[in-house]
């Protein structure tokens, strides 16, 4: 397993993003650059939403970051390990759920850095697995020859012996006529991307083992392992059910332990997502871009403080702590963490009950700083 170090941001986003300059009231502007000296990264699951329902007064809290005309005043983004939809689609979904304008640039998902691998696999046959629209996500980044696990698996008769028992499975037989089956069966898969939480674990583990053991040609003889990328490695996360649900990391553990039992060499893979430091470096760069497009001023701009508001100590808080200055970590009690005090292993700079309380703390703290200037 190896972790990616450096990340640059996909310039795509610069084009499809529209934010108006806000009025100057109460955003703590750094004197030298007339831009807010602070920015905020919000985790989604367990902080802003539980499933698809807003939690912790998140809509009202976020609305305080816009001015009366609806223009963004304080640069913020959603920094989630989740995914499955292109950033633009996820931004409109968040706008719907929260009743405010969220631009695609304000949505950074676990799979967002996958665009970095277009140079390497842009024209190669790659399989994209997970809930939602994994193939659309990848083609949105520029992958020209990507196929979803659903469509790929439907090309191989009997590859999933349990398919006849899966009532929901329309894919195998009723699926729209896939690309030329012959063409696919003879083409080697060069990489597999786990874009979002897999839905059909038994099929996906089976087909991934078939791809990864055979150099990308299921049913053929053993061969070198194609590359394997995960959007995150979260063991569990909080949704609408009272206790945590298994995440992509749990799927990774299942796949890895089975693969290592049936194959000579241990599974090789790369995990993206928080708590990797490059995710926070990238978030800082994106927040700078948001600030520069809402506060007209040329030249570089450094934030004095970046707030990471998260619910998972091992993922959100650990990541912000590892990223270090200027990150300030705030832990809410609306998700994975439900403790009275702080987390023992990954203590946050501040623990609050809700996102609303977190935003209240930030605005009060920053305007206090402003009055000292
Ligand atoms: O699948 C998403 C989940 O693992 C965590 O999402 O928003 O809490 O980073 P989030
Ligand atoms: Mg979370």
TrEMBL record:
User: What InterPro entries does its record include?
Assistant: CDP-alcohol_PTase-I, HAD-like_sf, HAD-SF_hydro_IIA, HAD-SF_hydro_IIA_CECR5, HAD_sf
Q: Which GO terms describe its cellular component?
A: mitochondrion
Q: Which NCBIfam families match?
A: CECR5, HAD-SF-IIA
Q: SUPFAM superfamilies, per this entry? A: HAD-like (SSF56784)
Spell out where the chain crosses the membrane.
none
- Annotated source species: Arabis nemorensis
- Name under which the protein is recorded: Hydrolase family protein / HAD-superfamily protein
* Superkingdom of origin: Eukaryota
What are its GO biological-process terms?
glycerophospholipid biosynthetic process
